[in-house]
Amino acid sequence: MSTIVSRSTAYISPAEFLKRADPRIVVKLCTDDIANPATTASLTTNDYLLAALRDASGLLESAVLLGERYSVDDLTSLANPSSQTNATGLFYRILSDIAMAHLYELRPEMAPSPSMSARIERASRWLDELSNGRKIFGLQEVAEAGHMDHQEVDADDTDRFHGQVQVANRLYGRRSEDFEP
Fold it and tell me: Within a 10 A sphere around the Cβ of 43, how many other Cβ atoms?
């Protein structure tokens, strides 16, 4: 049986989400009963909004946990609202835009504005770039992961490796420069 490495709550609170979304639009998207509409005050406990935030968090996890670049602990530290870092702001922005996309899916009769569509597309691109490592969140270990260490090889090292200085050669197969003319 596999071990679940996901968090049980969303990485962004409704209050942080509402700092990045128009509450008037969110109220409309979260209202399912016209006779009993959602209010701005009720959004912090609104089931539709909470579900969208969890869905967005799950989608982000599935993108960044790939390849073990990040751990759930890394994401949890990014989600700490008291950290006040730029990486936390970006983290919240991506989650907010993804959550808005999920809310718009609930109400197909409400089309997102062109600017909202652009935000949703940008969040989708960020997820792709985070997933493949072209973009990262500001964590030291992740930033250093792309740097390769090297060391000089001297005559003693060459003797110790029996003349083979590319130890990982077998991992990459034979290359054209390996063939003698």
Answer: 20
